[in-house]
Amino acid sequence: MASIRRRGDLWEASVCVGDVRRSASHPTKRAARAWAAAKTVELEAVKVGGCPDVPVSVVFERYARECSVTKRGCRWEVIRLNRFIQYVDLSSIRLPMLRSAHLAAWRDRRLSEVSPASVLREMNLISHVFTVAVREWNMLAENPLKNVRDSLHNRSFRYVMIWKRREMRADIGNWGARGRISGRFPFH
Hints:
Layout lengths: L1 E6 L2 E8 L2 E7 L2 H19 L8 H11 L7 H13 L1 H4 L8 H12 L4 H20 L26 H11 L7 H5 L4
Antiparallel strand pairs: 1-2, 2-3
Helix pairs in contact: 2-3
């Protein structure tokens, strides 16, 4: 139920759906009616278990405003969230339309720009944003990043061959017997 009334120079729109009440002031009656209609639809969708029809960027902005400020690495987390919001392909998608395929495409595109460790760090942050949206804000039914593989599935390891170990041991000489390098590479 929405009600609109005049308060000084502004129009106040109040919306009540179930136990949830929201209100906002607007300069014109037309803007107040539009806000009330949009907010009513959003709250009705949340009431029946659906997602609010907002862009994904709204979720990241809310997380940056409410959750990131309590963390020690706030500055870097907000930088990463803002960078994610700048990806127009993903941040403009409406929340009910967000699928794991969108996030997988973002991951693949991001892997061509930065290292896999950076992508994994960003994926962990994004996963936590969606987890908070599911558990605390009731904006999603499940985390869409849950079904996306991490970016480090193609890890490459370098194995040092026996002949290369011998060369390295000869290069190190007596200095490496107790030095840092011999402790990092197991010369057997």
